[in-house]
Design brief:
Helices cover about 50% and strands about 25% of the residues. By secondary structure, the protein is of the alpha+beta class. A hairpin with a 5-residue loop joins strand 1 and strand 2.
Length: about 650
């Protein structure tokens, strides 16, 4: 009996020992897996921020080169021959220096003093020789664009300081991103290195293993994958995660992230202490049931620790600059960090615990698609808000028993790209209007000269009054055509906006009064809510803005309707609102309505709203639009008050 008891005791002891050892190993692996996942999320966030920083730098360089190229071509077109005029152009365009280069390469004219003037030399030879029409390059501490002169040969050089570009790169560059993320809790070090050495790192990094001498780093580059290992750093053991960083298909380097193992060791240490406690209880009690109970309690505590790690994971997500949302497999939202709530413009109670399809009926975050195929989904979504729409880059991926959604608000970047596109299209329109004006003005001037000569030589010889009347008609109609051409050019040129303080309420009422007959014909009623407000504005330009908006509303209400016009003061802004009850605008078209040549009408050039936006921005203001199909559209204009 005793032998059987001892055998049972030993069997039970060994069973508990094996079960506990297996559980300890699983808990250790799970804790390590969570730590590795934390590091991968950190690196994913770092990679996206770094790519955005490089894209922003590239875009700024392209904008700078385009601006300098336009300035150089304008100088060549004006054919300036004196230093004073050249300096005025440099001052207006914020240029450091302008040089007019002779075909021989000598500086013929410059805003600087020729006696002590260095020159780029070989950098402009391809332009002087005609091999290239233009070239952009950096020289000393300046950004330079050289353009070959069309008529006389030689070149025009414009210089601009690159200090502002360098300062912005320091503020948003990869180095600043690494230093900022390096301050986060549990990150021991963070660096980006290539085969030549360290590119950027947290301040505590002095020397690290080189890629060519570290097989682990070479493997990560060769396989283009994310790898983990334990690594000794400044006398402490850390979990190192490495991942290659590519930008536009080119390898930039290898990111290395070191995470502290303090929390991991604390959990494992507590597990070991709990295991020792269980076995001490077994030895003292000599009862298998007690040992089993202790093991179960230990397992429960371990589960609580794992749950604590999950809560810690959510706390880490809360510190992320990107939006993080977790949805369980029953499509219920179980977590959303503050960044995600900011993107969605919602309170936490409006999101947590809600059904996903209720919040996102069109699967804007890709959760259903990801759940259906059990794969990562990457997409760009448009999320409509009360006042505006937001553009969001989304990554949705299954993680265990839930789905993780990463959101990045790219609205400002999209707006910048749209603004750049709008600027380019307006520049093309301005060039077209100048060409049209040139082609019309030359024959028009000839007509006017002929009319003046006929009047001077023959008016006193012909008694017929019809001759004099025809001459007067020829002269007045030619002048009217000249004024129309000038008005077209002025409208497309934002520098013609001349704001003067005046009563904007009077202007609105005047435009409504002028358009009242057309409104009655279309069965449209104006409803006014206008405060008496004065602020600086270009009266004629803003008149055209109101006319365009009212006419758009007319055309959107084919069977008549109501136009509500409001003028209010809101803080330091004057707010003009124009609402109609027309057919509305599709959500897919909202982001394109201000682009030149975009129109949904059968007739028209698509310039009205683009010119409206141009005039409003020339006043330092902004314009927004809200619309629902079959319910109507509201345009909101905000102009600085004062």
């Amino acid at each position: 009996m005793r032998k059987a008891y001892y055998a049972a005791f030993i069997a039970g002891f060994l069973a508990i020992l094996l079960i506990s050892a297996s559980y300890y190993k699983n808990a250790e692996r799970r804790a390590l897996s969570i730590l590795e996942r934390e590091s991968e999320i950190f690196l994913e966030s770092l990679l996206r921020s770094s790519k955005n920083a490089l894209k922003a730098k590239k875009k700024l360089e392209e904008l700078l080169a385009s601006d300098l190229l336009m300035s150089a071509r304008l100088i060549d077109l004006l054919d300036i021959g004196d230093q004073r005029s050249l300096r005025e152009i440099a001052y207006i365009n914020d240029l450091r220096r302008i040089d007019i280069i002779a075909p021989s390469g000598a500086i013929r004219l410059s805003t600087a003093e020729l006696a002590r003037l260095p020159s780029p030399g070989d950098s402009i030879k391809p332009v002087l020789s005609g091999e290239r029409a233009a070239r952009a390059f950096q020289w000393t501490n300046e950004y330079v664009v050289a353009v070959r002169r069309e008529k006389t040969g030689g070149a025009v050089l414009v210089y601009k300081s690159i200090e502002s570009l360098k300062r912005l790169e320091r503020e948003i560059g990869i180095g600043e991103t690494i230093r900022s993320m390096g301050l986060m809790r549990d990150i021991v070090y963070l660096l980006l290195q290539n085969e030549e050495g360290i590119i950027a790192a947290t301040p505590n990094v002095r020397k690290m293993s080189r890629i060519e001498s570290d097989s682990f780093l070479k493997k990560a580059l060769l396989e283009k994958s994310t790898l983990h290992r334990f690594y000794e750093f400044n006398g402490s053991r850390v979990l190192e995660t490495v991942k290659p960083f590519y930008f536009e298909g080119e390898l930039v380097g290898l990111f290395r992230l070191g995470l502290s193992l303090d929390g991991y060791r604390a959990i494992l240490g507590q597990l070991r202490r709990q295991m020792a406690f269980v076995f001490m209880g077994f030895l003292l009690a000599f009862l298998l049931a007690f040992l089993l109970s202790s093991a179960l309690r230990t397992a429960r505590r371990a589960e609580l620790r794992v749950s604590e790690m999950a809560r810690r994971e959510e706390k880490i997500y809360e510190t992320f600059p990107l939006g993080i949302i977790k949805v369980d497999r029953n499509l219920k939202v179980i977590f959303a960090n503050s960044s995600a709530l900011d993107v969605l413009k919602k309170e936490r109670k409006e999101v947590i615990g809600k059904r996903y399809e209720t919040l996102f009926p069109e699967d804007e975050l890709g959760v259903k698609e990801s759940l259906k195929d059990e794969k990562k989904v990457m997409k760009r979504s448009v999320i409509a808000g009360d006042d505006d729409v937001k553009y969001v880059d989304v990554i949705a991926l299954p993680v265990g028993e839930s789905l993780l959604v990463v959101l990045e608000d790219v609205t400002e970047r999209i707006r910048l790209e749209e603004k750049i596109q709008l600027s380019k299209q307006f520049e093309a329109l301005r060039e077209l209007s100048r060409g049209i004006a040139h082609e019309i003005r030359n024959p028009l001037n000839t007509v006017l000269i002929i009319a003046q000569r006929l009047e001077r030589e023959f008016s006193d010889k012909i008694e017929n009054g019809e001759f004099a009347r025809l001459l007067e008609t020829l002269r007045t109609e030619s002048s009217r055509l000249e004024a129309g051409v000038r008005k077209l050019v002025d409208l497309l040129n934002p520098t013609k906006i001349v704001p003067r303080k005046g009563n904007f309420a009077d202007l609105i009422k005047e435009v409504i009064r002028d358009m009242e007959p057309e409104a009655k014909e279309r069965n449209v009623v104006f409803v006014e809510d206008i405060d008496d407000i004065e602020f600086p504005h270009d009266r004629e330009a803003m008149r055209q803005v109101l006319v365009n908006l009212f006419r758009n509303s007319f055309e959107a209400m084919e069977s008549g309707g109501e136009i509500r016009v409001s003028l209010k003061k809101k803080g330091s802004w004057a707010v003009i609102s124009v609402s109609d009850t027309g057919r509305g605008i599709k959500s897919s078209d909202l982001s394109k309505i201000f682009l030149p040549h975009f129109t949904t009408k059968k007739e028209g050039m698509g310039l009205g709203l683009s010119l409206v936006k141009r005039v409003v921005e020339a006043h330092g203001g902004k314009i927004k639009v809200r619309s629902q199909p079959d319910k109507g559209t509201t345009f909101i204009i905000e102009i600085p008050y004062g």
